[in-house]
Design goal:
The protein is built from one helix and five strands, in the order E-E-H-E-E-E. It is mainly β. Strand 3 (32-35) and strand 4 (38-40) form a beta hairpin. This is Thiamine biosynthesis protein ThiS.
């Protein structure tokens, strides 16, 4: 199991961050992502493998200053 935005979900073997977002209906182009508190760039989502116990968060990217 893994934690995705405060939901507990199954964590099949070889699940990537990109696959998780798609399975949850998340428009990956509109969110930033973090796994276990570490930011994951969009370019690395396809290769970021998730493991049982991981915590995945999505959030709106803030631009500007």
């Amino acid at each position: 199991m893994l934690n995705f935005n405060d939901q507990t979900l199954p964590c099949p073997e070889r699940l990537t961050l990109s696959q998780l977002l798609a399975s949850q209906g998340v428009d990956a182009s509109t969110v930033a992502t973090a796994v276990n508190g570490a930011f994951v760039p969009r370019s690395q989502r396809e290769t970021t493998l998730l493991r049982p116990g991981d915590t995945v968060l999505t959030f709106q990217a803030i631009v500007g200053g």
